[in-house]
Amino acid sequence: MIEVRELTKVYNKQFALRNLELSIEPGKCLCILGPNGAGKSTFMRILATLSRPNKGDILFEGESIFSEPAVFRKKIGLIGHATFLYPELTAGENLKFYATLYQIPDAQQRIDDLLQTVGLMHRKDDRVRTFSRGMQQRLAIARAILNDPEHLFLDEPYTGLDQSASQLLTDRIIELKSAHRTIVLITHNLQQGYQLADKIVIFKDGRVADEAVTSAISESDFQQRYLAITSGGVN
Amino acid sequence: MLVFCLLVVVIFSFTFDPGSTYAKEAAPGILWVAFTFSGMLGLNRTFSQEVDTGSIHGVLLAPLDHGAIYLGKMIGSFVFMFLVELITLPAIIVFFDLNLENHYLQLFTIILLATIGFVSVGTLFSAMTVHTKTRELMLPILLFPVMIPVIISAVNATSSILNLEEWERIFGWIRILLAFDIVFITVSYLTFGYVVEE
Fold it and tell me: Is B57–A80 a contact, with Cβ atoms under 8 angstroms apart?
């Protein structure tokens, strides 16, 4: 269980997060929706230990993730706006570099399996700078799940993906869900989020404005609630 | 870095008569101007490419102490800068007609310690300034004032070596460089995590 307690982040006197309270159940998929500037990406950066809150904490199994961040980082994978890949290295070299950082045993086999899965085995020895945005994002998916993470965090991962790459990503998320991995997904696509998530939360002004369990509400009802909040009805 | 360093040495060599007293007096300063300014070029690139492509976050996400990333970056910067210095040193000896006699080991030690001091602070400051718009300007403005003890020690020690002074006098500067290295590597190692986390 990941528990978010009174999380506050301030940038230049502007609150990105205000006393955010949230719980993320293990093995479930949580989808975070919200307008631009709601604090979604800031929350994701703090959750991935790339940033520290000004106040509050995130607890994993009762322990602060900031007390031993390297231990928590070993269990997570992150797909963000950027691919985190080195353009001058080949696809294989990129994955090998990250496999070394994560000390993955039998790395070569794992790399080949993942390249096969994301459909890039034939481009293994090509430099990443020669890849299209969609291909880079597919390789980023392989990078993010290289360490077989317990928790996968996805920050608008569908941005710039073509149809086949989107389907590939959706398939991977469903596969990880069935393997009882915890998934936190940030998206602007309510329909996609609703279909994948067990629970949806709506961020607004750095707070949780609304939340719902997807099995307890229809997509159209939730969409109405979402529109009411994002159009300014609820604060 | 190497081309810049050699150019500085060659350009300054036109100003002085090789082997003259003036050349001997100016050589330590020219040597360290060449080393520090070319080192600055390297330090500016320590994080810039990874920040521009976003791959720095991939490294920061790895299950490592961020201090280990600092050490890796520092060692990388050191290797490049030290190689440039090793190649440049014979050039300055030839162009300025310097006589080191058997003081090569002392000069090697000074260059080694001063370079470690330079990259230890430089790597930390490079991480601090890489997110600023004027990073290539900000790094020298921030770094050089902090580097004053290293530059003064290195220049004076090099001057003592070229004047074939006694070991005791040179050792005083070495102790300052050694203390600087120990303090700043420790401080930088401990604070690097806070610098790279927003």
Answer: yes
